């Protein structure tokens, strides 16, 4: 016996890790489906905080999984190097397959957690485009977890039946912390990791979330991921001859900034939430998108393409589903928190719609196209 370094601890920590992986997998699939929608997929416009919740949960569970992985590896590490007692070629083969599945499981989860952590810190030291690779590896990690559970289910059942206070009986000699001590330390580490970072999603915890990548600070009280300088739009967005073009088939109309300001203005309190897990609520003011489309005789039953002044790139062109187009809370925003949009927040105007990833809330709008 080795105290807390045994299968009883491994099984309990593994269950917690499996739950966090499952939550990350489901919420990650949702985020990917929203950003890269299929015809069969529909994401609701209400409640307005829905994406803020699902993506915040995704990142919070990912961070909580880190101490769980560390403890699980610590608890099983010595056993990974114990020589197999299997006899015969079949036994050896089964043992090798089992060890191989564990290797895939560990590698996939470490890859997902490390790249996810680097992504929320926006430190892209890896040489690949994060979203599709992270998405693809999620299936590998989920599949490896299922295989591992199938192989180890009898062992897990027996281990969960053991008390964490069991001392091992006669001849027991503990050489490390007790099971209960290890588990208490694990749950404490998970709680600390969560509280120290979840403030980027939960405003009430921002003061104590000392490790949160986004504190809520930024121009006009809202963080910025991509600045106007990084997007290469400083000159075009600030130009005096700026025009917003709205197109519906053969009909088109351009609007100056003054004309947009002269239209009826609406204010909505909406959160902006990014895939990195941070979110912030703000008062957005501007023209209701449906009203702007009506000004050129367009209806709101079609999807709409939002085009940025930003040079062509992954998210310089986004498609807004018809359900969002129809929603009265969807704005071509001109102001934030009572002030004219800062250049880094999308001046002269930007899209803001309920329950959408921040990367799809197109900034520096130049053109709006009704899709048929």
UniProtKB/TrEMBL annotation:
Gene3D superfamilies named among the record's database cross-references: Oxidoreductase, molybdopterin-binding domain
GO MF term list: oxidoreductase activity
Keywords: Membrane, Transmembrane, Transmembrane helix
Origin superkingdom: Bacteria
Residue ranges crossing the lipid bilayer per the database entry: 12-35, 55-81, 102-126, 132-151
Domain Oxidoreductase molybdopterin-binding span(s) in chain numbering: 234-371
Protein name: Molybdopterin-binding protein
């Amino acid at each position: 016996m080795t105290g807390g370094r045994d299968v009883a601890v491994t099984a309990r920590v593994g269950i917690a890790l499996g739950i966090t992986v499952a939550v990350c997998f489901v919420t990650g699939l949702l985020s990917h489906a929203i950003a890269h929608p299929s015809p069969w997929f529909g994401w609701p416009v209400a409640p307005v905080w829905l994406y803020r919740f699902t993506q915040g949960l995704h990142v919070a569970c990912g961070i909580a999984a880190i101490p769980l992985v560390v403890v699980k590896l610590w608890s099983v590490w010595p056993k990974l190097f114990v020589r197999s007692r299997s006899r015969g070629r079949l036994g050896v083969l089964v043992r090798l397959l089992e060890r191989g599945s564990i290797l895939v499981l560990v590698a996939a989860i470490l890859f997902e957690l490390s790249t996810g952590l680097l992504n929320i810190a926006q430190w892209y030291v890896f040489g690949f485009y994060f979203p599709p690779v992270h998405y693809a590896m999620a299936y590998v990690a989920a599949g490896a977890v299922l295989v591992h559970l199938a192989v180890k289910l009898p062992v897990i059942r027996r281990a969960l039946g053991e008390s964490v206070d069991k001392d091992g009986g006669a001849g027991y000699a503990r050489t490390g912390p007790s099971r209960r001590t290890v588990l208490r330390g694990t749950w404490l580490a998970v709680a600390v990791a969560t509280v120290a970072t979840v403030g980027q999603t939960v405003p009430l915890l921002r003061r104590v979330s000392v490790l949160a990548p986004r504190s809520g600070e930024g121009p006009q009280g809202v963080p910025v991921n991509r600045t106007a300088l990084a997007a290469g739009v400083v000159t075009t967005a600030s130009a005096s001859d700026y025009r917003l073009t709205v197109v519906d088939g053969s009909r088109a109309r351009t609007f100056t900034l003054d004309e947009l300001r002269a239209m009826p203005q609406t204010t909505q309190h909406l959160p902006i939430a990014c895939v990195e897990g941070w979110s912030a609520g703000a008062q957005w003011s501007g023209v209701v998108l449906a009203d702007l489309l009506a000004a050129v005789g367009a209806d709101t039953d079609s999807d709409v393409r939002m085009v940025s002044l930003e040079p062509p790139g992954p998210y310089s062109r986004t498609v807004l589903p018809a359900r969002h187009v129809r929603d009265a809370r969807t704005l071509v925003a001109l102001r934030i928190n009572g002030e004219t949009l800062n250049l880094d927040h999308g001046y002269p105007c930007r899209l803001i719609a309920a329950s959408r990833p921040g990367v799809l809330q197109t900034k520096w709008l130049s053109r709006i196209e009704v899709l048929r």
